[in-house]
Design brief:
Blueprint lengths: L5 H5 L15 H20 L6 H8 L3 H7 L3 H26 L2 H21 L1 H9 L8 H19 L8 H15 L5 H15 L6
Helix pairs in contact: 2-3, 2-5, 2-6, 5-6, 5-7, 5-8, 6-8, 6-10, 8-9, 9-10
Amino acid sequence: MTPDQEPRAAADRPDRGTGAERPLRAHARRNREKLVAAARAAFTAADDTVPLDGIAREAGVGIGTLYRHFPTREALVEAVYAAELDDVTAGAAALLEELPPDRALRAWMERYAAFVATKRSMLNTLHIARASGRLATPATRERITAAIGTMLAEGARAGTLRADVAPDDVTAMLLGVFLSTAADDEAERTRRLLDLVVDALRPPGSS
């Protein structure tokens, strides 16, 4: 039996985790976090065909532990996607505490670009999960746009970003950048385009 075939057998194990069970113990929670972190790195570097036993090995756990937490590849991909989305949306507030709003927005765009790259590598599995009804479509665009809106509002108050820009228009601009550079995979070109987006969001006459 190959690693990708094993979830069917794992589903019959009485110790398999389910959403209805009590909260994970500290050790189990750490294992789950390590698995998600290893999967995030693997999917970003390659794609969602990465062998699951390789992910378990990178996390320092056995393949049985992986299947107790994530009985299918789709379950693991969904967990990675949720973690990535949480990180990128929460990152807006964290950056605003460290940087002026216009610089925080530019730094956040780099994090958003990394999220899009990771999501792109998992698209096939995500599509399968959504088509089967096991994964509800998350409000990804709404959450991204809300994060952008927070930074635009702070920038408008500080006078470093325009006050007349709709957050969803910025989301559309960023998606256009990522779509236009997806085939080239040119990080430098993406950075130049993101710089242009931020320049367009600054008030006229500002440096």
